[in-house]
Amino acid sequence: MIPTRRVSRSFAALLGLLAFSTTALHAEEDAEVDPRAISALEQMGSYLRGLKHFSISAASQTDQVLNNGQTVEFRHQIELLAQPPDKLRVTVDAQGYSRSLFYNGQHFTLYDSRSHFFTRAPAPANIDRLIDQLNQRYGIELPLADLFRWDKATASQVGITSALLIGSETLGDQTCNHYAYRQPDIDWQLWLRAGPQPLPCRVVISRRGETERPRHSVDFHWQLNAPLTTRAFEFVPPAGARAVPLQQLAPQEPAAPSESTTGTQP
Fold it and tell me: Which of 117, 179, 235, 241 is the most buried (most CB within 10 A)?
Protein backbone atom coordinates (compact mmCIF):
# COMPACT_ATOMS: atom_id res chain seq x y z
CA MET A 1 0.00 0.00 0.00
CA ILE A 2 5.75 3.50 1.30
CA PRO A 3 9.91 7.41 3.49
CA THR A 4 12.67 9.96 4.14
CA ARG A 5 15.47 7.79 5.39
CA ARG A 6 12.59 5.64 6.20
CA VAL A 7 9.50 6.84 4.39
CA SER A 8 6.52 5.97 6.46
CA ARG A 9 4.05 3.21 5.67
CA SER A 10 0.75 4.26 4.27
CA PHE A 11 -2.30 5.65 6.71
CA ALA A 12 -5.43 8.28 7.17
CA ALA A 13 -9.20 8.55 7.22
CA LEU A 14 -12.13 9.65 5.10
CA LEU A 15 -15.05 10.95 7.17
CA GLY A 16 -18.45 10.03 5.78
CA LEU A 17 -22.12 10.72 6.47
CA LEU A 18 -22.83 7.55 8.41
CA ALA A 19 -26.56 8.18 8.42
CA PHE A 20 -26.72 7.13 4.79
CA SER A 21 -24.77 3.89 5.20
CA THR A 22 -25.32 2.45 8.68
CA THR A 23 -27.98 -0.09 7.70
CA ALA A 24 -26.04 -1.40 4.73
CA LEU A 25 -22.82 -1.57 6.74
CA HIS A 26 -24.41 -3.62 9.50
CA ALA A 27 -25.74 -6.05 6.93
CA GLU A 28 -22.28 -6.47 5.43
CA GLU A 29 -20.65 -7.00 8.85
CA ASP A 30 -22.61 -10.24 9.28
CA ALA A 31 -20.27 -11.79 6.68
CA GLU A 32 -16.77 -11.39 8.15
CA VAL A 33 -15.02 -12.22 4.89
CA ASP A 34 -16.99 -11.11 1.86
CA PRO A 35 -15.76 -13.03 -1.22
CA ARG A 36 -16.29 -9.89 -3.31
CA ALA A 37 -13.75 -8.00 -1.21
CA ILE A 38 -11.15 -10.75 -1.55
CA SER A 39 -11.83 -11.05 -5.29
CA ALA A 40 -11.27 -7.29 -5.64
CA LEU A 41 -7.77 -7.64 -4.15
CA GLU A 42 -6.97 -10.52 -6.47
CA GLN A 43 -8.12 -8.54 -9.50
CA MET A 44 -6.12 -5.51 -8.39
CA GLY A 45 -2.99 -7.65 -7.97
CA SER A 46 -3.33 -9.25 -11.38
CA TYR A 47 -3.89 -5.88 -13.05
CA LEU A 48 -0.95 -4.17 -11.33
CA ARG A 49 1.38 -7.02 -12.29
CA GLY A 50 0.37 -6.62 -15.93
CA LEU A 51 1.21 -2.91 -16.24
CA LYS A 52 4.16 -2.22 -18.56
CA HIS A 53 4.72 1.38 -17.51
CA PHE A 54 2.90 3.99 -15.45
CA SER A 55 3.25 7.16 -13.43
CA ILE A 56 1.60 8.11 -10.14
CA SER A 57 1.11 11.40 -8.38
CA ALA A 58 0.11 10.66 -4.78
CA ALA A 59 -0.68 12.79 -1.75
CA SER A 60 -0.03 11.18 1.64
CA GLN A 61 -0.90 12.18 5.19
CA THR A 62 0.87 10.46 8.08
CA ASP A 63 0.12 10.71 11.80
CA GLN A 64 3.08 10.83 14.17
CA VAL A 65 2.67 10.47 17.92
CA LEU A 66 4.89 12.82 19.92
CA ASN A 67 6.55 11.88 23.20
CA ASN A 68 3.80 13.68 25.12
CA GLY A 69 1.13 11.55 23.42
CA GLN A 70 -0.11 14.27 21.06
CA THR A 71 -0.76 13.24 17.45
CA VAL A 72 0.35 15.50 14.61
CA GLU A 73 -0.07 15.06 10.87
CA PHE A 74 2.64 15.30 8.23
CA ARG A 75 1.93 15.63 4.52
CA HIS A 76 4.03 14.43 1.60
CA GLN A 77 3.70 14.52 -2.16
CA ILE A 78 5.00 11.44 -3.99
CA GLU A 79 5.81 11.30 -7.70
CA LEU A 80 6.57 7.85 -9.12
CA LEU A 81 7.57 6.68 -12.60
CA ALA A 82 7.89 2.96 -13.27
CA GLN A 83 8.72 0.71 -16.18
CA PRO A 84 8.80 -2.79 -14.71
CA PRO A 85 10.76 -4.88 -14.21
CA ASP A 86 13.87 -2.72 -13.95
CA LYS A 87 13.19 1.02 -14.16
CA LEU A 88 11.96 3.22 -11.32
CA ARG A 89 12.04 6.82 -10.14
CA VAL A 90 10.46 8.03 -6.89
CA THR A 91 10.47 11.55 -5.44
CA VAL A 92 9.03 12.48 -2.04
CA ASP A 93 8.41 16.21 -1.45
CA ALA A 94 7.83 17.63 2.03
CA GLN A 95 8.28 21.10 3.52
CA GLY A 96 9.89 22.46 0.37
CA TYR A 97 12.55 19.78 0.02
CA SER A 98 12.69 16.47 -1.79
CA ARG A 99 14.36 13.08 -1.62
CA SER A 100 14.61 11.02 -4.78
CA LEU A 101 15.54 7.54 -5.92
CA PHE A 102 16.64 6.73 -9.46
CA TYR A 103 16.96 3.11 -10.58
CA ASN A 104 18.05 2.10 -14.08
CA GLY A 105 18.34 -1.69 -13.68
CA GLN A 106 22.06 -1.58 -12.85
CA HIS A 107 22.53 1.10 -10.21
CA PHE A 108 20.36 3.11 -7.87
CA THR A 109 20.99 6.70 -6.81
CA LEU A 110 19.58 8.55 -3.80
CA TYR A 111 19.51 12.37 -3.82
CA ASP A 112 18.56 14.81 -1.04
CA SER A 113 17.77 18.34 -2.23
CA ARG A 114 18.22 19.91 1.21
CA SER A 115 21.83 18.81 1.67
CA HIS A 116 22.60 18.39 -2.05
CA PHE A 117 24.14 15.00 -1.21
CA PHE A 118 23.75 12.00 -3.48
CA THR A 119 24.93 8.42 -3.31
CA ARG A 120 25.12 5.68 -5.92
CA ALA A 121 25.37 1.91 -5.50
CA PRO A 122 25.06 -1.27 -7.56
CA ALA A 123 21.51 -2.59 -7.75
CA PRO A 124 19.85 -5.96 -8.41
CA ALA A 125 18.15 -6.75 -11.69
CA ASN A 126 14.53 -5.94 -10.85
CA ILE A 127 12.34 -3.71 -8.70
CA ASP A 128 11.24 -6.51 -6.34
CA ARG A 129 14.83 -7.30 -5.38
CA LEU A 130 15.70 -3.61 -5.17
CA ILE A 131 12.93 -3.11 -2.57
CA ASP A 132 14.40 -5.96 -0.50
CA GLN A 133 17.96 -4.66 -0.81
CA LEU A 134 17.05 -1.11 0.22
CA ASN A 135 15.15 -2.38 3.25
CA GLN A 136 17.44 -5.13 4.47
CA ARG A 137 20.83 -3.63 3.70
CA TYR A 138 20.21 0.10 4.19
CA GLY A 139 17.05 0.37 6.28
CA ILE A 140 15.20 2.30 3.57
CA GLU A 141 11.54 1.58 2.99
CA LEU A 142 10.45 2.57 -0.50
CA PRO A 143 7.22 4.59 -0.75
CA LEU A 144 4.31 2.72 -2.37
CA ALA A 145 6.38 -0.47 -2.46
CA ASP A 146 3.27 -2.65 -2.05
CA LEU A 147 2.20 -1.72 -5.58
CA PHE A 148 5.11 -3.81 -6.88
CA ARG A 149 4.70 -6.72 -4.45
CA TRP A 150 0.97 -7.36 -4.56
CA ASP A 151 -0.14 -10.12 -6.91
CA LYS A 152 -3.15 -12.39 -7.25
CA ALA A 153 -2.04 -14.69 -4.40
CA THR A 154 -1.17 -11.99 -1.85
CA ALA A 155 -4.68 -11.65 -0.44
CA SER A 156 -4.55 -15.23 0.84
CA GLN A 157 -1.07 -14.79 2.35
CA VAL A 158 -1.33 -11.67 4.52
CA GLY A 159 -3.66 -12.95 7.25
CA ILE A 160 -6.86 -11.06 6.42
CA THR A 161 -9.46 -11.86 9.08
CA SER A 162 -12.23 -9.54 7.89
CA ALA A 163 -13.06 -8.19 4.44
CA LEU A 164 -16.10 -6.03 3.69
CA LEU A 165 -17.56 -4.31 0.67
CA ILE A 166 -18.79 -0.93 1.96
CA GLY A 167 -20.23 0.46 -1.27
CA SER A 168 -19.60 2.66 -4.30
CA GLU A 169 -18.34 6.23 -3.90
CA THR A 170 -17.15 9.09 -6.08
CA LEU A 171 -13.65 10.39 -5.33
CA GLY A 172 -12.90 13.42 -7.48
CA ASP A 173 -13.74 12.36 -11.03
CA GLN A 174 -13.45 8.62 -10.30
CA THR A 175 -16.08 6.09 -9.32
CA CYS A 176 -14.49 3.77 -6.78
CA ASN A 177 -15.60 0.72 -4.80
CA HIS A 178 -14.90 1.07 -1.08
CA TYR A 179 -13.60 -1.96 0.87
CA ALA A 180 -12.54 -2.46 4.50
CA TYR A 181 -10.05 -5.10 5.70
CA ARG A 182 -8.63 -6.27 9.01
CA GLN A 183 -5.31 -7.95 9.77
CA PRO A 184 -3.60 -8.52 13.12
CA ASP A 185 -3.13 -5.04 14.69
CA ILE A 186 -4.06 -3.26 11.44
CA ASP A 187 -7.30 -2.00 9.92
CA TRP A 188 -7.19 -0.70 6.38
CA GLN A 189 -9.57 0.68 3.81
CA LEU A 190 -9.18 0.58 0.06
CA TRP A 191 -11.00 2.46 -2.68
CA LEU A 192 -10.55 0.72 -6.04
CA ARG A 193 -11.44 2.25 -9.38
CA ALA A 194 -14.60 0.64 -10.74
CA GLY A 195 -14.49 -0.95 -14.19
CA PRO A 196 -11.80 -2.75 -16.18
CA GLN A 197 -8.86 -0.91 -14.54
CA PRO A 198 -9.01 -1.82 -10.81
CA LEU A 199 -6.41 0.71 -9.66
CA PRO A 200 -6.17 2.03 -6.08
CA CYS A 201 -7.84 5.44 -5.74
CA ARG A 202 -7.18 5.77 -2.03
CA VAL A 203 -5.84 3.70 0.87
CA VAL A 204 -6.17 4.32 4.60
CA ILE A 205 -4.32 2.30 7.25
CA SER A 206 -4.73 2.55 11.02
CA ARG A 207 -2.80 0.65 13.68
CA ARG A 208 -5.02 -0.84 16.37
CA GLY A 209 -2.03 -1.92 18.45
CA GLU A 210 -1.22 1.68 19.45
CA THR A 211 -3.45 3.59 21.86
CA GLU A 212 -3.54 6.69 19.64
CA ARG A 213 -4.38 4.62 16.53
CA PRO A 214 -2.19 6.65 14.17
CA ARG A 215 -3.34 6.70 10.57
CA HIS A 216 -1.73 7.07 7.20
CA SER A 217 -3.54 7.74 3.92
CA VAL A 218 -2.56 7.96 0.29
CA ASP A 219 -4.66 9.39 -2.57
CA PHE A 220 -3.56 8.19 -6.01
CA HIS A 221 -3.71 9.82 -9.43
CA TRP A 222 -2.63 7.39 -12.17
CA GLN A 223 -1.31 7.98 -15.66
CA LEU A 224 -0.99 4.81 -17.72
CA ASN A 225 -0.18 6.31 -21.11
CA ALA A 226 2.51 8.84 -20.24
CA PRO A 227 5.52 8.42 -22.56
CA LEU A 228 8.63 7.35 -20.63
CA THR A 229 12.24 7.33 -21.82
CA THR A 230 15.26 5.63 -20.28
CA ARG A 231 16.67 9.09 -19.49
CA ALA A 232 13.84 9.57 -16.97
CA PHE A 233 15.52 6.95 -14.75
CA GLU A 234 19.06 8.35 -14.95
CA PHE A 235 20.35 10.73 -12.29
CA VAL A 236 22.19 13.83 -13.51
CA PRO A 237 23.81 15.63 -10.55
CA PRO A 238 22.70 19.27 -10.33
CA ALA A 239 25.23 22.03 -9.81
CA GLY A 240 26.71 21.86 -6.32
CA ALA A 241 25.67 18.26 -5.63
CA ARG A 242 28.23 16.19 -3.71
CA ALA A 243 28.69 12.41 -3.70
CA VAL A 244 28.76 10.69 -0.30
CA PRO A 245 29.04 7.02 0.72
CA LEU A 246 25.93 5.07 1.58
CA GLN A 247 26.06 3.54 5.05
CA GLN A 248 24.84 -0.02 5.45
CA LEU A 249 23.01 -1.32 8.48
CA ALA A 250 25.13 -3.06 11.09
CA PRO A 251 24.87 -6.85 10.69
CA GLN A 252 22.49 -8.46 13.15
CA GLU A 253 24.04 -10.95 15.55
CA PRO A 254 22.25 -14.30 15.58
CA ALA A 255 20.04 -14.76 18.61
CA ALA A 256 21.15 -17.27 21.23
CA PRO A 257 19.10 -20.48 21.07
CA SER A 258 16.30 -20.61 23.60
CA GLU A 259 15.12 -23.63 25.54
CA SER A 260 11.96 -23.83 23.45
CA THR A 261 13.90 -24.07 20.20
CA THR A 262 16.39 -26.62 21.44
CA GLY A 263 13.75 -28.90 22.86
CA THR A 264 15.06 -28.63 26.44
CA GLN A 265 12.30 -28.51 29.01
CA PRO A 266 12.58 -26.44 32.23
Answer: 179
